Amino acid sequence: MSHDARLGDRVTLGPGVLLAGGVVVDDDAVLGIGAVVLPDRRIGRGAVVGGGGGGPRRPRGTTVVGNPARPLAPR
């Protein structure tokens, strides 16, 4: 396992974000305050991980919140 993280273009990381080894964050993703991304995960293009949310494998453009992370329910 590599301990490197790869960040795409226009990625926003809030304060206190933790990225484990082998993480890839694709273009235009947003990781909120205190988000934790587990080893060898990929955060898809345009995904939003809410503050404190974990980073599971999700399709691009998905918004997840909570711990464990769950998709944000539509209003």
UniProtKB/TrEMBL annotation:
Region of interest (Disordered), residue spans: 47-75
Gly residues bias (residue ranges): 47-56
Gene3D superfamilies with a match to the protein in the record: Hexapeptide repeat proteins
Record InterPro entries: Trans_hexapeptide_repeat, Trimer_LpxA-like_sf
Signal sequence bounds: none
This protein's name: Transferase
The organism of origin for this protein: Blastococcus brunescens
